[in-house]
From TrEMBL, chain A:
Organism: Bradyrhizobium macuxiense
Residues of the signal peptide: 1-31
Identification of the protein by name: ABC transporter substrate-binding protein
InterPro entries associated with the record: Bact_solute-bd_prot1, SBP
Family, per entry: Belongs to the bacterial solute-binding protein 1 family.
Length: 452, 321
C-alpha cells in the first residue's frame, strides 16, 4: 500500500513537472512570438511571397514559416496532408482544381463570414479568379479562398529573332506575310515550322515548346489551350455532366490532332515528358523560338540576362477556329480547417487582401487578382507582359474542379499522352475513351451522367 | 590539494557477496519459454503494428468504395466489386503484361551479365579489388539518383548516350529518344535496371563460384576435361542454386519496381512503361481510390507470394539434387 502511495505521489510530481515545463515552453513560445506555416509550390512567385511576408511579420509580430514543394509533387504532397488532416499548414495556396474537394471534405475554412466581417468583397477581384480559385459550388457565393496568385497560360517568343531583317524577308517570301507574334494557331504552326531546324547564330533552333509531361498535369494543361479554341468543352452547359458529343466532338478531335501535329513538326527532340522547367530551360538556352508557359514565370524570364529584356516578347494564347480561350492557372489562399492558428491565419488573409499589399505583390513578382491593381490605368505599362496577362485573364477556362478532379486529370493525362506522344490510336478514339473514363468517375461519385 | 578518499570495498560488509537484484529475483523462476517470449514480444508487437494490422485493414478496405478525395461520401461495403473491376479491366492486364516483360527481360539480362562478371572477377588479376569496387558502384547508388542521372545521359540533345550510339551507327544523335519512343523506352528501363543490378547478381554468383571446392577442378584436369567441359559440368551446375536465388531476389524487386522507372519515363510515352506498381501508386495516392487500390495491392501480393512459393519449392528441389 505504501508502495502504491509512493507511486501515486511520484506520478503526481511527474505530471506537475511536465505541466510546469509545458508552461515554461508556452511562455517561451509566447516570448518568441507566434508562427504561421504557409504551404505552396516551390517556384519564382514563392520567393516573392517570402519577401512580401516580411512586411506582415513586421506589422503583426507573427513569424512566417514556409513549406514549398516542387510542382511535380505539389499535389501529391499537400493533398496527402489535407486528406490526413495534418497540421503542417496553417495557410495553403492550393491549386484551383482542389477547391471542390477541399470544400466538400471541409479541408478549408469557409470564408464568407470572415469576408463579411472584414469588409472584403469578392466583387473587388477579377471575376475569373473568384470563380476559379474561391467558389464552390462554382458561380455561387460560397467562398473558400481569397484569390492569391492569378495565372494563365501565355507564350513567349524571341523578339530579337523575329525582328532580324533576313529572317523577316525569308518568312515573307515563304508565307507572304510579315513575321509577327501569331494571332491564331494556324499562324503559330507556320512560324514554328519556319523556325524548326533553322540555324541561327551557328546554332540549330526549334519552332515551339509545348507541354507534354505525363506524370502530373503537364500535357493536359497544354492541350486544353488548343482544345478550347477548337470547340472542346467539359460538358453540356445545359445538362451538367453530359459529355458524350461534347468532350469527344469532331471539333475537339481536330484540336487534339492539331496539338499532335504541332508536337511532331515543331518541337525539340526529346521533349516527350516536358513541363514548366523544361520549357524555361529550352527558352533560356536559346533553343526555341516560341514557348508555351505560365505567366508566373515571365517576370523571371524578362530579367534573364541572355534571353530577357529586348530579346523577349510575349503573346496571348492564339485563337482557334471555334473560339479564343486560354488555360487558367493560379491559386487562392485558404485557411486549413485543422490549423491550431486559424485566427492568425485569417489575420494574414486580411492583411494580404489590402490594396497596398496587392500592389506590392504585383511589383515584386506575384500576380495580383485585385481589380484595383490590374484595372489601374498604368497597369499595362507596369511590365512588358502586363497587357497580355490582362487579356488572358479575360479569356480563361479551367479544368474540372470537382472533388474527383485528380481522377479526371489522370485519365486525361493518360488518354492524351497515349495519342500525342505514344502514337496510340486516333484522336477520336482517345476522346471517346476519355468520355468513358470520366463517365465512370462521375457515376462512382453518384452523379447522373446523361449520355445524350 | 584535495584528497578524495575512495571507499574500501573490502571493508564494507557484504559487498563481495553475490547479491541478487530485485529484477534478477523476478526473472528467477520464469521458464525459458517465458523469457524467450519477453525478448521477442517487442518485435512481435512492432510487426503486428506496422505489418499485420495494416494488412488486415487493407483487406477490409478492399471490400469498400473508400475514396480519400471524397471522404464525405458514405463508406459502402461493395463486396467483390473492386476485384471484379480490376480483373476485367483491360488496362490492368496490359500493365501486368508490361511488368512481366520488364521482369523477364531485365532479370534474364542481369543473370547473363552478372554471371559473366562473376566469372571474370573470380580470376585473380592485377587491379582485381579496384575493378570489383568499380563494378559494384551502381548498386550502391539510390534508384532516385540513378533515374535522374540516366535521364540526363539519355537526353537526345546533350546526353552522351545518343552521341555514343551515333558514333557507332552513324544515326544522328538527336533523331531518337531512348525514353520518349514507344519502341525504345521499354528497353531503356531494362538497360538501366541491368546496369544498376547486374553487380548484385554478380556478388551472389561470386559466392557460388567461390563455394566450389578446388579439388573438383583438379580432378577434372586430371581427367583432361577441357575448360568448356569444366564450365558445363562443374561450374554451371554448382552455381545454379545461387543463380536461382539471385533470380528470385531480382524478380521480386523488379515486380515492385517504381522509383527508377517513374523518374526515367513516368510510365510513358503514353502508358508504354507504366508498370503495375506505378498504376497502383497512381490509384492509391493520386486518384485516392483507396478501396480499389487496396484490392489491386492484394491481387499483386497474392500473385508474387504464389509465384515465389512455387519458385522456392523448385529451388529446394534443385538444391537437393
Amino acid at each position: 500500500m505504501r508502495r502504491m502511495n509512493w507511486l501515486r505521489s511520484t506520478a503526481a510530481s511527474a505530471v506537475l513537472a511536465v505541466a510546469a515545463l509545458g508552461g515554461l515552453g508556452g511562455g517561451e513560445a509566447a516570448a518568441q512570438g507566434k508562427q504561421l506555416t504557409l504551404c505552396w509550390a516551390a517556384w519564382d512567385p514563392a520567393n516573392a511571397l517570402v519577401e512580401l511576408g516580411k512586411d506582415f511579420t513586421k506589422q503583426s509580430g507573427i513569424e512566417m514559416k514556409y513549406e514549398f514543394v516542387p510542382w511535380t509533387s505539389y499535389a501529391d504532397r499537400f493533398l496527402n496532408e489535407l486528406n490526413s488532416h495534418g497540421k503542417l499548414c496553417d495557410l495553403i495556396i492550393g491549386d484551383s482544381q482542389w477547391i471542390g474537394g477541399a470544400a466538400e471534405n471541409k479541408w478549408y475554412v469557409k470564408l464568407n463570414d470572415f469576408f463579411d466581417k472584414e469588409h472584403i468583397s469578392m466583387d473587388d477581384f477579377v471575376p475569373a479568379t473568384v470563380v476559379g480559385y474561391s467558389q464552390w459550388p462554382k458561380n455561387t457565393p460560397n467562398y473558400w479562398a481569397l484569390p492569391a496568385m492569378a495565372d494563365a497560360v501565355g507564350w513567349t517568343y524571341r523578339k530579337d529573332w523575329f525582328s532580324r531583317p533576313e529572317i523577316q524577308s525569308a518568312f515573307k517570301a515563304k508565307y507572304g506575310r510579315d513575321l509577327a507574334p501569331p494571332k491564331t494557331y494556324d499562324e503559330l504552326k507556320q512560324i514554328a515550322e519556319f523556325f524548326q531546324g533553322r540555324e541561327i547564330d551557328g546554332k540549330k533552333v526549334y519552332g515551339a515548346y509545348i507541354f507534354t509531361e505525363r506524370g502530373s498535369e503537364g500535357i493536359t494543361m497544354g492541350v486544353t489551350n488548343v482544345l478550347y479554341n477548337y470547340g472542346f468543352a467539359y460538358d453540356n452547359p445545359k445538362k451538367p455532366y453530359q459529355m458524350q458529343g461534347i468532350v469527344n466532338s469532331a471539333d475537339a478531335a481536330k484540336g487534339l490532332e492539331f496539338y499532335k501535329e504541332l508536337y511532331k513538326c515543331c518541337t525539340a527532340p526529346g521533349m516527350t515528358n516536358a513541363y514548366m522547367q523544361e520549357g524555361l530551360d529550352a527558352f533560356k538556352s536559346g533553343q526555341v523560338a516560341m514557348q508555351m508557359n505560365w505567366f508566373a514565370f515571365f517576370p523571371g524570364l524578362y530579367k534573364d540576362p541572355n534571353v530577357g529584356g529586348d530579346k523577349i516578347g510575349f503573346f496571348v494564347n492564339p485563337a482557334g477556329p471555334k473560339g479564343h480561350f486560354t488555360q487558367l492557372g493560379g491559386q487562392g489562399i485558404s485557411v486549413v480547417a485543422t490549423s491550431d492558428h486559424k485566427d492568425d491565419a485569417l489575420a494574414y488573409i486580411k492583411w494580404f487582401a489590402q490594396p497596398a499589399v496587392q500592389q506590392k505583390w504585383w511589383q515584386i513578382g506575384g500576380y495580383s487578382a485585385l481589380k484595383a491593381v490590374v484595372d489601374a490605368p498604368d497597369f499595362p505599362k507596369s511590365a512588358a507582359f502586363a497587357p497580355q496577362f490582362l487579356e488572358s485573364m479575360g479569356i480563361v477556362k479551367d479544368f474540372w474542379a470537382e472533388p474527383s478532379y485528380a481522377q479526371l486529370l489522370l485519365d486525361m493525362q493518360k488518354r492524351v499522352h497515349d495519342y500525342v506522344v505514344a502514337d496510340k490510336g486516333t484522336a477520336q478514339q482517345a476522346l471517346d475513351l476519355l468520355v468513358k473514363d470520366w463517365t465512370k468517375v462521375f457515376k462512382e461519385q453518384g452523379k447522373e451522367v446523361a449520355s445524350q | 590539494m584535495t584528497t578524495i578518499l575512495q571507499p574500501d570495498h573490502a571493508t564494507i560488509p557484504g559487498v563481495n557477496k553475490p547479491v541478487k537484484s530485485r529484477a534478477a529475483r523476478r526473472v528467477h523462476g520464469l521458464s525459458d519459454r517465458t523469457i524467450a517470449w519477453l525478448f521477442v514480444a517487442p518485435t512481435i508487437a512492432l510487426l503486428l503494428a506496422i505489418n499485420i494490422f495494416p494488412l488486415i485493414w487493407m483487406i477490409r478496405l478492399s471490400f469498400t468504395n473508400l475514396n480519400l478525395s471524397m471522404s464525405y461520401l458514405p463508406l459502402r461495403f461493395v463486396g467483390l466489386d473492386n476485384f471484379r473491376d480490376i480483373l476485367t479491366d483491360e488496362d490492368v492486364w496490359f500493365r501486368l503484361q508490361t511488368t512481366a516483360q520488364f521482369v523477364i527481360c531485365s532479370v534474364a539480362l542481369q543473370v547473363v551479365v552478372g554471371f559473366g562478371l562473376a566469372l571474370l572477377i573470380n580470376r585473380q588479376f592485377r587491379g582485381h579489388s579496384f575493378w570489383t569496387t568499380v563494378i559494384l558502384l551502381p548498386m550502391m547508388l539510390s534508384p532516385a539518383v540513378v533515374g535522374n542521372f540516366w535521364t540526363l545521359l539519355l537526353q537526345p540533345q546533350i546526353g552522351p548516350f545518343n552521341y555514343l550510339i551515333s558514333l557507332f551507327t552513324g544515326v544522328p544523335p538527336s533523331s531518337f529518344s531512348m525514353t520518349g519512343q514507344v519502341s525504345l523506352a521499354p528497353w531503356t528501363i531494362v538497360l538501366v535496371d541491368t546496369w544498376m543490378w547486374a553487380p548484385y547478381v554478380m556478388l551472389i554468383c561470386l559466392a557460388g563460384l567461390r563455394s566450389i571446392p578446388d579439388y573438383i577442378y583438379e580432378a577434372a584436369e586430371v581427367d583432361r576435361a577441357s575448360a568448356w567441359r569444366q564450365f558445363w559440368s562443374i561450374t554451371l551446375p554448382m552455381t545454379v542454386p545461387f543463380l536461382m536465388l539471385a533470380v528470385l531476389f531480382r524478380a521480386i524487386e523488379n515486380f515492385k519496381m517504381f522509383d527508377m522507372v517513374n523518374l526515367l519515363t513516368s510510365g510513358g510515352p503514353g502508358s508504354t512503361t507504366e508498370l503495375v506498381s506505378i498504376s497502383l501508386k497512381r490509384a492509391a495516392f493520386e486518384k485516392w481510390r483507396t478501396g480499389y487500390s487496396s484490392a489491386l495491392a492484394i491481387i499483386l501480393f497474392v500473385t508474387v507470394f504464389g509465384a515465389a512459393n512455387i519458385y522456392v519449392k523448385t529451388l529446394n528441389k534443385v538444391k537437393q539434387r
